Amino acid sequence: MFNMGAEPAPKIYGRDKHGIVRSSISHGALKVCEILRSHNYSAYIVGGAVRDLLLGVVPKDFDVATDAHPEEIHRLFRRSHLIGRRFKLVHVLFGPETVEVSTFRAGEGGEADEHGRLLRDNVYGTRVQDAARRDFTANALYYDPHDETVLDYHGGFADVRRKTMRIIGDASLRFREDPVRMLRAVRFAAKLGFTIDPKTRAPIRELADLMENVPAARLFEEMLKLLLSGHSAACLAKLRKEGLHHGLLPLLDVVVEQPQGERFLRLALDQTDTRIQTGKSVSPAFLFAALLWHEVQAAWKINESKDMRSIPALYLAMDQVLDAQTDKLSIPRRLTTTMKEIWALQPRLEQRSGKRALVLLTHPRFRAGYDFMLLRAESGEVPMELANWWTRFQDAELEERNAMLIPDAAPRKRARRRRKSKPGDPQAPPLDEPGN
Q1: Which residue of the set 52, 63, 130, 159 is catalytic?
Q2: How far apart are CA 195 and CA 338, in angstroms?
């Protein structure tokens, strides 16, 4: 960590300056702060929730930071759970709401690897130290619901007003400590419409290779946040602009550089962003299936060119593409299983004959496979007539469905092998007959 020097006093903004009203804070977060305060602990709404409230955006969730230790917090709330191994947090439940409560952490005493990446950073500290160890100034603001003030140690209040994403401390050092901060800078800037401060942005391209040192599971978690931010297309474009796409993830290289299927990928990202922005649910498996689909298709064609039958070639292609992601991005099995089912349905959806089409309607992934095929049709990959047929077919009555079915092709008759005749055989033609 950088040297903080003497502990600074925060700038304090009253309600007349920040404009946040208590009614915009969730019931659970207010209750957590109230109970902690009643037991002589300090407690603040922190992080992205304060930033979003200053921007007039409804926060997705509310986090609380306190000087109480996790076990002390857990004892105060009957409906709470201790989570985490390296650094314990407390999840406090209020009906459907979960409030994450963390103890102030210090930024010193951490263990780093040869690249400067922090391996352990789990020392309890003061509020001042907790603010210093946060990544960006806009995320280092503390709202006290008791007196309705915002505490600011690093100029985050002004940066939010200027819509600037600025890292706390020396950018090169902070990115070396945790390379994921470079992804977070891009994600926040794209999502919030912020610009990245020049000094924060300067070392990103040079340090992009440090992403190779990030554990695959953590990288997947951060990529999922980026793709489900509601601004995935803008995030990926900004990744390319900042030089973070090359070698970061194979799928990102596909998304931003592969000409083939560009329209398909753009439609998938735009559809995901629209659903998130309108409060609808999205399937991470569906999105990753879309991102990797053209890689699967390319491998599928190569396998078929080696005289493999089509369906075995497709299944092999699925495994080849997913295996190629393992070192970079640890996609959980629960998602890859669904992704494979969506991919496997595509050649089946291109067949509309006999009982096969009727059986396909009962497949547990039919709807996801059908939606995936709609994207393929909109991008021109398969005929729109095929998509329209399935749209009508699934909503039709049984009699109409039967009328829409394309008859199964008549099975080819197996050619009878002609028995080789021998001289003297009563069924054999004369030896002098033409053709003998």
Answers
A1: 63
A2: 37
Cβ–Cβ under 8 Å, residues 255 and 291:
yes
Q: Which of 61, 144, 253, 371 is catalytic?
A: 61
**DSSP of 87-145, one letter per residue?**
S-EEEEEETTEEEEEEE-B-SSS-EE-TTS-EEE---B--HHHHHHHSSBGGG-EEEET
Helical pair 216-227 and 284-305, crossing angle rounded to 10 deg: 110
Known active-site residue 63: yes
Q: What is the rounded CA–CA span in Å between residue 380 and residue 211?
A: 35
Q: Determine if residue 5 is left, alpha or beta; phi over 0 gives left, psi from -120 to 50 gives alpha, anything else beta.
A: left
Cα gap 43→378, rounded to integer Å? 51
Nearest to 88 by CA among 72, 107, 111: 72
Q: What is the rounded end-to-end Cα distance, in angstroms, of the chain?
A: 95
Residue 135 annotated in active site? yes
- In this predicted structure, what is the pLDDT of residue 86? 75
> H or E element: which one contains 338?
helix 333-349
Grouping H, G, I as helix, E, B as strand and the rest as coil, residue 181 is helix
pLDDT at 116: 47
Contact indicator for 222, 181 with CB cutoff of 8 Å: no
Residues 344-392 have pLDDT tens digits of 999 999 988 778 888 999 999 999 999 999 999 999 999 999 999 999 9
Q: Model pTM?
A: 0.78
Write down the H helix ranges in 140-249: 156-162, 171-177, 180-192, 198-201, 204-207, 216-227, 232-241
Q: Which tokens is 113 given?
A: 């690897």
What percent of the residues of the chain are helix, what percent strand, and what percent coil, each to the nearest 5? 50, 10, 35
Residue 243 reports pLDDT greater than 80: no
Burial pattern 302-311, b for ≥16 Cβ within 10 A else e, equals ebbeeebeee
Angle, to 10 degrees, between the axis of helix 262-277 and the axis of helix 232-241? 130
Burial tier of 253 (Cβ tally within 10 Å: 0-12, 13-18, 19+): middle
| 92 phi, psi to nearest 5 deg | -105, 130
Instruction: Kindly indicate the confidence band of residue 432, based on its pLDDT and cuts at 50, 70 and 90.
Output: very low
- Choose, from 121, 130, 135, 159, the residue flagged as catalytic: 135
Q: What is the pLDDT of residues 178-230, one digit of tens each?
A: 999 999 999 999 999 999 999 999 999 899 888 888 888 888 888 889 889 89
Number of H helices, E strands in the chain: 21, 12
The whole-number pLDDT of residue 301 equals: 96
Residue 243 · residue 208 · CB < 8 Å: yes
